[in-house]
């Protein structure tokens, strides 16, 4: 996703104190700190496991066993039978952790095995991935540079990286978070943050406060399940449980700006949220009498904010622009103007809130009568007015005046499937569990004795207002340059693709390759995001979708002398290749994260590597990502076909490239979210959407499958 932009644009600011050709002291310091962080997390997880009954069952369950045995002695009942039943109870509690321990052990062994033998495989795979993009002379030069790297200094770098893999929980993720996200000094709005849309066709109520009430209550229910460990873990292929570490920082989390690097602040249970409406900030308590506020009570609170006619204080209207502009001015302004008095108190209320809510004064959503309605909806979620989302919060919930909703998510703490899991739960709970009255209000009684929301107070001097305005102008320039197009493809979907006996993702990726070639007349380095959550604290790996096989297929499609039978054979070969690369990426055998970590080691050691420098500077002119549907049991779309999600998207990655996110919904719908830049004469998001549509249809024609499934 947006990480592809950061993966090329990041700047390295660490320098070594000295170099040891055997083991660099600076690298060892980085490895040591990674390991300390990993072991702290393990200790916390173990403590939480004991307290919550994961390992080896909760203290309360052991107390029950003791009481039961004592009771049998008093009542003269055979204690063995009771003990057997109690042990079965405890065994059920322990079974999950036992399986997970085996998987973790196997995963760690597998990780070390992959890393130890990865150097040669990585270089071979890399050269294979760039072959279709280079002519013979360029490829020969790259081959020479890669082979030189393999001889020296690759063994030095690999030695340090192998050591980190033994010591730290995950040899990639902490460096990925730090150097790809937190050290970036450019604006995170558009460049890093991403968005998620509401249900495509349905608005369950047009009352803004009511929709906000139900959705916020559903989010609080999800947070409670998350904190209690009641969410069913997702499993790859329905068997292997995936790491849930990223979920831990979903709520109560804020990215805090710094001069050289930001950091992620995560707190325990927060009992309030902050609401932004027409330039004013309000603090709303989420609890009353030790319980969550009911949806009807939340609706009342939000309606009070909507009815408030007060004006913004000086500098308050565009204050969130500080989070939308460059990071250094925001960090300096925070230190100078927000570390004491009412400014500190108000900023603390925002940064310690469960999440951020914007009650937007615009109306958005999909309108079948307006072909650009999805485009405007996407741009609003991605950047809004550049001053009405707090882009540093883990996520900002946006509720429009017509009842439509969406989410803008900060990327450093997690990847899109994590927020997507919560969003699926919220939409289903909102529509099918909480519901609304016939008038569109939240169900339940109204407690009018609730304390009204509190206005946050500010004292923003002129000098700070100038910084705010400067950040706003920078953000406005970025936002105005975003060319977005939402493309609903409903000619066919997963149902027909299954008949082709190929992976839907591979089908779409090959269509994207064909569409891009028709759009620009050339091939490009292509990024597809794949999850690596089968490993502890895994995040993502890159699938390099432009291959020798895919380019051969595309050329055949454009060659009139090639028969459909030949094209079909090349398609199947390219699809098989793509599926195999995706499997390798998911199982830790990708190449890009390993190359990234080798580059980090090289920079810390102060050893220049022409090979790594070239690899890490290559632009991804086509960056793609699939939004997965993870909880198909929540909404029966066969029974409720209008209750389908619209997915989400991200900003353009390269100045002259495209960003494409897509979601496969049910059997007959694929939604594409396409971004590029108006400033590039080479790109046009609407045109690219039309090329994707035609490419999908042309590939279908190869199979002679015309019926709509």
TrEMBL record:
Tell me yes or no: is Transport among this UniProt entry's keywords: yes
Protein's GO biological process: carnitine metabolic process; fatty acid beta-oxidation; long-chain fatty acid transport
Where does the record place a coiled coil? Answer: none
Q: Which UniProt keywords apply?
A: Acyltransferase, Fatty acid metabolism, Lipid metabolism, Membrane, Mitochondrion, Mitochondrion outer membrane, Transferase, Transmembrane, Transmembrane helix, Transport
Name all Carnitine O-palmitoyltransferase N-terminal domain ranges: 1-47
**Pathway(s) of this molecule:** Lipid metabolism; fatty acid beta-oxidation
* Localization terms from the record: Mitochondrion outer membrane
Give the transmembrane region(s): 50-74, 86-108
Give the family, as the similarity comment puts it. Belongs to the carnitine/choline acetyltransferase family.
Protein name in the entry:
Carnitine O-palmitoyltransferase 1, muscle isoform
List the lineage, top down. Eukaryota, Metazoa, Chordata, Craniata, Vertebrata
